[in-house]
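Batch job 17 of 40 flagged for manual review because the log was empty.
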Amino acid sequence: MTGTIYSGIKNIYDVRSKSGEHFECRIKGKQLREDEQSYNPLAPGDVVSFDLADSQRGFITDRHARVNRFARWNRKRGAWQTIAANLDGLLCVISATKPPFRPRFVDRVLIAAKQGGVPSSILVNKVDLGVEPWILERVEVWRSLGIEVLLCSAVSKEGISKVKDMISNRTMVLFGPSGVGKTTIINALIPGLDLVAGTLSAKSDRGRHITNFARLLDAPDSGKLVDTPGIREIHVHGIAPEELSMWFPDFDGEDGGCSFQPCSHRHEPECGVRLAVEAGRIHPDRYRSYLRMRDDLENNTQW
């Protein structure tokens, strides 16, 4: 039989067949574990072949080829963690405030999505609490790069209709830090689901983990959402430091004006990128985002 992974914990997977039935399945033997560099061989959205053991349980024998995947580098385990597969898009969820707006986190997610061949968009939540001008300025920078950015409030429902239109007939993964409102957004998009939402820590102004594993959810209008646990950091991996600028489309054309090649865009004289920052053609925070990533790649080669 053929089915789709909806969730998985400790080699126990919820698989839905083409007819809509759900089966509890395990990987048969050690198959699927040796052909991946990631430590989790299956993720929500994966299409698998499985044999039935009885009317409710089965054994997964094969994972079909993926169209794409969204993964993050797990520094502790030294391996890729596949979050979801076979996606129409990723929606990076960030909050305008409480917890604070984190544009450099988003920049890293955009690169990770691109590495896996997943189109990405951005959703800024909690706009009912106010949106400062510098945040809107950063939003316009992303839009100028061709990235769709939506603003919404899961509480007041402002902008939720546009999010519903985006996920209609599509499989999307929602990804972002804890506390940005992913669960509340999902409850607004899927009536009757009523997932338990977390609260912010009064001490750190950060979210508390409520969702502890990724899961695929059916949404209205034939849409599907992958709900994911909130994370605090995402690491850039698998990119040579001298190639990082290629992942910043706003650097295109500007790096050709560098007097030194290759140029790190940090201290070299007559650097086209730094001149573009000074002239306002590259946003200074995007430049700082690049510098932070480059330092991480150079100082943590073991990642």
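Reviewer: the log was empty due to a logging misconfiguration, but the result itself is present. Residues 199-209 have pLDDT under 50 and may be disordered. Unflagging and moving on to job 18.
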